[in-house]
């Protein structure tokens, strides 16, 4: 058996560390190279925080680049991922509820335009529907808690949420309100509407579309709310139009516009909040 000379190992080690002009320059590790690449794509914003910049390349449109860059730098998007909410919109409802106390244990809540489910998640948690799985309204005998119900619909599909009864429905369809009432099995305490029509880029047209959605949502709320109930709906910067506001003020004790901090400052969205429902108006004989 051949054995290596005891000095050969030291000699090879010396040669490997010797810069004799023939060895190639050391290559940066993939990890360090990636870190430098990441730093090149980041800059500080006006507040001094690091801001991720998305490169424009391939088939990506400039509008897509701006949307992606905004998502990557949005603290609410990151927070939603950490805390398990399906969208940053969850924090809009959380902030509105922190101030106005809309959601209470044992309530029945209707969520119009629910997908992807951020508002339904918040509502189910705060009214106790997630604990009771939303099947029956009342007392959870095992836990001694009031359990509520969340009934949600959307034109798009929405994965299951504990405590939320969901149906894929177009609220514009003539039979949608009746189907929704059947799902409810009674009156509601709060009607939420985060519905938004597809924008056209024409401001007046988009305003008319969103007002139309709010009008049918408000009309539905007036049919299904318990006395003292509340209605919250998305509108644009100009808010609800005069006719709709007049109707809401007849039906509710307090009507106001609110814009939570979680709504982007450059966004035109705001919300109309109506509380203290006076009760359904009975038809005169």
Structure in a nutshell:
The protein has 285 residues and is α/β, with parallel strands linked by helices.
Describe the structure in your own words.
There is one protein chain. This protein is of the alpha/beta class. The protein folds into 2 domains: 39-72, no CATH class; 87-277, Rossmann fold, CATH 3.40.50. It contains 10 helices and 11 strands. The protein has helices spanning 6-16, 30-40, 62-72, 75-83, 90-100, 118-127, 129-132, 176-184, 203-224, 242-251, and strands spanning 42-44, 50-52, 108-112, 138-140, 145-147, 149-154, 164-168, 188-193, 225-235, 252-258, 270-277. It has a 7-stranded mixed beta sheet, sandwiched between helices. Strand 4 (138-140) and strand 5 (145-147) form a beta hairpin. Helix 5 runs parallel beside helix 6 (118-127). The chain is globular. The N and C termini lie far apart (114 Å). Residues 1-26 and 35-40 have low confidence and may be disordered.
Number of helices: 10
CATH architecture classification name of the largest domain: 3-Layer(aba) Sandwich
Taken from the alpha-carbon principal axes, the silhouette is: globular
Beta-strand residue fraction: 15-25%
* Secondary-structure content class: alpha/beta
Estimated helix fraction: 25-40%
Distance between the termini: 114 Å
Biggest sheet architecture? 7 strands, mixed
Task: Give the number of DSSP strands.
Answer: 11
Report the CATH C-level class of the largest domain.
Answer: Alpha Beta
Uncertain stretches of 5 or more adjacent residues: 1-26, 35-40
Run of helices and strands: HHEEHHHEHHEEEEHEHEHEE
Number of domains: 2
The CATH topology of the largest domain comes to Rossmann fold
Order of strands, main sheet, comes to: 7-6-3-8-9-11-10
User: Radius of gyration over alpha carbons?
Assistant: 28 Å
Query: Mean pLDDT across all residues, rounded?
Result: 78
**CATH-level-4 superfamily name of the largest domain:** Vaccinia Virus protein VP39
């Amino acid at each position: 058996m051949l054995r290596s000379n005891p000095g050969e190992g030291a000699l090879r080690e010396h040669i490997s560390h010797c810069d004799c002009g023939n060895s190639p320059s050391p290559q940066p590790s993939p990890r360090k190279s990636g870190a430098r690449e990441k730093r090149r794509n980041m800059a500080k914003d006006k507040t001094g925080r690091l801001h991720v910049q998305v490169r424009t390349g391939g088939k990506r449109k400039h509008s897509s680049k701006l949307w992606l860059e905004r998502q990557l730098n949005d603290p609410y998007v990151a927070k939603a991922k950490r805390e398990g909410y399906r969208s940053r919109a969850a924090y809009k409802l959380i902030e509105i509820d922190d101030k106005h106390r809309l959601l209470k244990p044992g309530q029945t809540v209707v969520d119009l335009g629910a997908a992807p489910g951020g508002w339904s998640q918040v509502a189910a948690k705060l009214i106790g529907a997630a604990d009771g799985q939303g099947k029956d309204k009342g007392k959870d005998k095992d836990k001694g808690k009031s359990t509520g119900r969340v009934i949600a619909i959307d034109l798009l599909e929405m994965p299951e949420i504990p405590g939320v009864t969901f149906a894929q429905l177009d609220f514009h369809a003539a039979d949608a309100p009746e189907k929704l009432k059947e799902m409810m099995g009674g009156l509601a305490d709060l009607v939420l509407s985060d519905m938004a029509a597809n924008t056209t880029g024409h401001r007046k047209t988009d305003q008319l579309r969103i007002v139309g959605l709010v009008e049918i949502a408000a009309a539905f709320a007036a049919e299904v709310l318990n006395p003292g109930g509340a209605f919250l709906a998305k509108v644009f910067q100009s808010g609800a139009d005069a006719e709709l506001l007049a109707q809401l003020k007849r039906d509710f004790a307090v009507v106001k516009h609110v814009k939570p901090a979680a709504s982007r400052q450059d966004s035109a969205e705001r919300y109309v909040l109506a509380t203290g429902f006076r009760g359904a108006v009975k038809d005169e004989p």
